[in-house]
Amino acid sequence: MRTTLAAALTTALLLGSLLLAQGTTPPPLTLITAQGRRPLPTTMIRGQEMVATDDLVSLLQVAAREDTTAGGIALSYKGKTVVVSPDQPMVSVAGRLVPLQSPAIRNGRRWFVSLDFLPRGLSPIYDARIELRRPSRLVIVGDLRVPRVTVRLDSAGPPTRLSIEASPSTLITPMVESGRIVLRLEADALDVAPLPQAGGLLEQARTEGTTVVLTLSPRAGLARAAQASGTDVSRLNFDVPLAGQTDSAATPAGALPAGVTPPTTTEAPQLPPSPSGARLIVLDPGHGGADTGATGPSGVQEKALTLEIARRVKTLLESRLGMRVLLTRDDDRNVSLDERTAVANNNKANLFVSLHLNTSPSPLMSGAEIYQLRLERETPGRRGTASEPFTLPLTTGGTRTVALVPWNLAQARHREDSTLLANLLESSLRAQVPMGLRPIQEAPMRVLAGLDMAAVVVELAYLSNPEQDTASQSDDFQNKAAQAILEAVSAYRAAWRGGQ
Amino acid sequence: MLQPRQVALGLAATLGMALIALAVSIGLERLFSTPVPEAADAVEFAGATASDVAHINATLFYVSEDGQALVGVRREVPLAEGRIEQGRQILRLALTPPPRGYSSPIPRGTTLRGFYVTDRGDAFIDLSQHATSGHPGGSFAEMLTVSALVNDVTANLPAVQRVQILIEGQHVDTLAGHVDLRRPLTRDTSLVR
């Protein structure tokens, strides 16, 4: 039966019917390039999935010409050529023969090649690697980060256990919200295995670009995350309890109004304070991507300087203080202010330092300034913003006190710690770099408002001042600024220990 | 054979010129009938007509020559009917080039799209996209812009307690990545000398 069908199909193809294959068209492959995703149609011919060379010509800008002597077709890219011959399961790449699964087929004016032609025939002449991932039907052009992502419903529960795995290892930033878990992956695109169906407290799993969104039942409480790392995979587990089971207080965690953070945990009173008050610091290189920040008279962009200085500070803090340091961005890309806040809150950072360079309408202004959040008069003071705390059992045993904090008021609880950090930065910076007219200021800084830890913005110099523009690009200035931040963080840790 | 074509060409040219002339005349008419110019030479305009038109003295906030602070400068603003129209007149003047010796805290080329005040005393200043796209960035420069706008309104319209800044009619997070504009702001004299 199959043979008859195939024979019929071949005969029809030889007759040159262009419409023949349409009835058996599989879903297109997805071509992922640095420019985005585009469909690459395929056709079933003789039981083999094939791709038309004219689609490769239009999508990958290769040139094609009929090779009359060999009776085949030659594809060229930037001076390199691969010759495809009919009825031979191989191609000639720059004179070298490469075997393919099946021979190329001519159908009227069009040529079709088997899918393995992409990595085996075209990739060697192309200026970027071409990778074919058959199970997920992806063709990846260039060195893009496209991790394989598997989301599993491990146990329906409740508690419902969910897991996400990314391979190769990829930074996954979770945002646990009321009614959903949002997982942002540090990648160019995702290669997602079939997502789980609804089950337990999971209502839906879907992807949006490089983000995975797990929608939970209205009965679900706030999910608890547990990191489980492997050598070459990133894995996060979530336990989603029923709302009532997380919460002995009046407000069920699953019914939080919009704009309320995940619970902010503090150590249980009966536990001794941590031996080192600041274990994790988040450094926030201001701006990035299309948001260049300020531009100095030399043309230097704020976004480049903040990243360079943040990297220097990170190296110092890790090597000298053995601290864990996270950057809100480690390359030139746009990160929203909410995402910056989320990185720090979700990782329960102890300190947050946002790095910037300043401007003024006058080129005369110069010097470093530190900004902390100005609280509006109606904002309740420290600890006044939280709901009545309640106690959660920990999976590791013991309990933890949890308070629910409105997202935009989280910083109010850390006013004293932020002031301490600002004062220490002011004195350590003063010893290393010129200081501004108002070295410590309070302002309604957007990036600080939702941070649930000691947090400041440091404007290291005025880029609008030509001398500071030049200085801020020098190794000397950048090292001095990094050294000052190291000293302030070190002093903060000592003060925090002494104060507890 | 050629004559009809020449006639046609001539007719087309005449029609074209007539259209251009019409467009220019409409353009000129619109230009000169605009009641208050939103940019550039409004200072001269206000000054030249000060003697004929009733006016008020309003305090507008500009950046001092050394760039360190905002300074309140008394300026003549045409008298307008009601606080909303008066607020519009004040802001239109604030968006024009500054008096000699000062610089403007607001990106040059920004226009006022709208201004209104609610019964509760919350004012809304709706500015063109240029307030964001033309902003030089930096926390201090952004503080100067926001404080000046808020103070221009609150210092001159006593009924206004809080000011919400909008861009192209929309709420925005910030102008250039620093100062929180999600909620209305109250008068801020911390940068005023």
Give a brief description.
The complex is a heterodimer of chains A (500) and B (193). Chain A is α+β, with helices and mostly antiparallel strands and 500 residues long. In chain B, strands 3, 4, 5, 6 and 7 form a 5-stranded mixed β-sheet that branches. A two-stranded antiparallel sheet of chain B has the order 1-2.
Question: Any overview of this molecule?
Answer:
Helices cover 23% and strands 34% of the residues of chain A. Chain A is an alpha+beta fold and 500 residues long. In chain A, the strands form seven sheets. A six-stranded mixed beta sheet of chain A has the order 25-24-26-31-27-30, sandwiched between helices. A five-stranded antiparallel beta sheet of chain A has the order 5-6-7-8-9. A five-stranded mixed beta sheet of chain A has the order 18-14-15-22-21, with no helix packed on it. In chain A, helix 5 (302-321) packs across helix 10 (475-499) and helix 7 (415-430) packs across helix 10. The termini of chain B are far apart. Chain B has helices at 3-33, 42-49, 82-94, 130-133, 139-154; strands at 55-63, 70-78, 112-117, 122-127, 162-167, 170-171, 185-186. Chain B has five helices and seven strands, in the order H-H-E-E-H-E-E-H-H-E-E-E. The model of chain B is unreliable at 24-50 (pLDDT under 50). The chains are: A alpha+beta (500), B alpha+beta (193). Chain A binds chain B through residues 286-287, 291-295, 302, 337, 356-365, 369, 371, 376-377, 408, 437, 441-447, 449, 457, 459, 462-464, and chain B through 63-68, 103-105, 136-141, 143-144, 173-174, 176-183, 185-186, 190.
Name its key features.
heterodimer, A: 500 residues, 31 strands, 23% helix, B: 193 residues, five-stranded mixed sheet, two-stranded antiparallel ribbon, 7 strands, 37% helix, globular
Q: How many helices of chain A? A: 10
Largest Cβ-defined interface: A-B, 38 and 30 residues
Rg of chain B: 22 Å
Contiguous low-pLDDT stretches of chain B (5 residues minimum) are 24-50
Arithmetic mean of pLDDT of chain A: 80
Overall spatial form of chain B? globular
Briefly note the structural class of the backbone of chain B: alpha+beta
